[in-house]
Every structure is written in structure tokens, then in C-alpha cells.
Design brief:
InterPro entries: HD/PDEase_dom, HD_domain
Pfam family, one: HD
Order of helices and strands: HHHHHHHHHHHH
Bound molecules: fe (ii) ion
CATH class: Mainly Alpha
Protein name: HD domain-containing protein
Strand content: under 5%
């Protein structure tokens, strides 16, 4: 499949910035976020709820960076990009964290961004069940507060971009994807993982308040 010319724009934009590194100072979104938003919109902008959800997750992530003391540019960029693997031109394995990370890697994005996308929201549990762990393992699984923040942002924004409780969000996804879905099959491992992430983030947010 030939990629639409629109998909080449973010790569050119990235080149214009030179070698992209996440911003050093926490609390400041920067060029990585701008490029990520452009790429996300080019891929998901006509995908209805997927785009609304993505915008909500990016806004949520940007708001979490300061209180959690993590790199706002890196976190917000990863939030814009976390679901690009759902875009039809990017689908290879059909596992969106992996397909998204693969696209980012092939287009020169920083390895931390690809790793955050690859492992967001307990992707490693689904990858293991689907026999994709080896493919996922080429990306760094950083298991940091920032990675928790990305998962928390994803788990607290519903399908149409509305803010939701993480338990309600998790239940909604399980219901929407059905009892035979991969998410449902790995629920005994992924569910406790997501609840632990939420507890860690909410503990830090309460401490920062
Ligand atoms: Fe998402």
C-alpha cells in the first residue's frame, strides 16, 4: 500500500528540527509534541471517536506532567501518538501498540517515544497472549512515572474524549471489545496492573496537591 503524501509531512517536519530529543525541563511541551500532534492528526483525524479520544488523552497527559514532575514534551508527544497504530495504513500485526511503535521507529522518532507507545496500558500482557512478546521486546519498557502517566491518561479518557474513572473506563473497554477479546483473555494479569498504575499515579497526584 502506498502511504498518502500527508503521512510524509511529519517526517519532513522532524528533519527540520534536527535530531529530536525530549525537552530537558519538565513542565514544558515543545517541538516533539507539535510534531506528534501533526502526525496523529494526519493518521487519526478522520477516525471519529479515535481522534476525539486521542485529543482527550493528550490534554489529560499534558495536565499530569506538571504535578507528576515528568517531561511534559515527551509525555504529551507519546499521548498524541499512543493509538496511531489503529490507523489503517499502519496496520501490520493488528496489535496497535506494536504497529504504532514500528511506524515511529521507521520514521526516526526517539526510541523512548516508540517504547512508551509500545507498552502503554498493559500492552505487554496482550502481546504475550498473542505471541508478540519478541517483537515488542525490541522497544524499551521504561516502567517509570512517565510511563504510568501515559497509561493513566489513556485509562481516564473515554472513547469520545470525555474524562472517566479508570475502573469505569476499564469495564467499558472490556464490554465494548467483548468476552472473547484479547483484553478480556488477559484481564487476570492486565486488570491488576492497570489498577496498580492508577493507585501509584493517584498517590503522587494527592501528594502534589
Ligand atoms: Fe487510547
Amino acid at each position: 500500500m502506498t502511504a498518502p503524501s500527508l503521512l510524509r509531512v511529519p517526517g519532513e517536519l522532524l528533519e527540520s528540527f534536527g535530531p529530536l530529543q525530549p525537552a530537558v525541563l519538565p513542565g514544558r511541551a515543545g517541538p516533539l509534541t507539535a510534531a506528534a500532534r501533526l502526525l496523529a492528526e494526519s493518521l487519526l483525524g478522520d477516525m471519529g471517536n479515535r481522534w476525539l479520544h486521542t485529543q482527550g488523552v493528550a490534554e489529560r497527559a499534558a495536565g499530569l506532567a506538571g504535578p507528576l514532575g515528568v517531561d511534559a514534551d515527551l509525555l504529551t508527544a507519546a499521548a498524541w501518538l499512543h493509538d496511531i497504530g489503529y490507523a489503517p495504513p499502519l496496520v501490520v500485526t493488528g496489535f496497535h501498540p506494536l504497529d504504532g511503535a514500528d511506524h515511529l521507529t521507521r520514521n526516526g522518532w526517539p526510541v523512548r517515544v516508540a517504547g512508551l507507545v509500545a507498552y502503554h496500558s498493559g500492552a505487554r500482557f496482550v502481546a504475550a497472549a498473542r505471541g508478540l512478546s519478541e517483537m515488542l521486546a525490541v522497544y524499551p519498557d521504561e516502567r517509570t512515572v512517565l510511563a504510568d502517566a501515559l497509561t493513566y491518561a489513556d485509562q481516564t479518557v473515554g472513547p469520545s474524549g470525555d474524562r472517566v474513572d479508570p475502573d469505569a473506563r476499564y469495564a467499558e473497554v472490556l464490554h465494548r471489545h467483548g468476552p472473547c477479546s484479547w483484553n478480556a483473555r488477559v484481564d487476570p494479569e492486565r486488570g491488576p496492573h492497570l489498577r496498580a498504575v492508577a493507585r501509584r499515579v493517584e498517590h503522587l497526584l494527592a501528594r502534589a496537591a
